[in-house]
Amino acid sequence: MIPLFGTLFPGWILVVAAAALITVGLTLILRWVGLGAAIPARPVFNLALFLLVTFILWEVLYASH
Length: 65
Hints:
Transmembrane segments: 12-32, 44-63
Order of helices and strands: HH
Oligomer: single chain
Shape: elongated
Number of strands: 0
Strand content: under 5%
Number of helices: 2
Keywords: Membrane, Transmembrane, Transmembrane helix
Protein name: DUF1656 domain-containing protein
Radius of gyration: 14 Å
């Protein structure tokens, strides 16, 4: 368990960084599969995907408290 606050490298930074990397990876996978052109409003989709991944990671890591 990574502490949220009070450390040199807070846990929320790791959650946001991991969510960003996962979002980029999922977007690249969707483009590679051929679904990138089928997604309208790509920046909105990327933001929604980023927020969804961030929420899921946050719940997995910190919902037990």
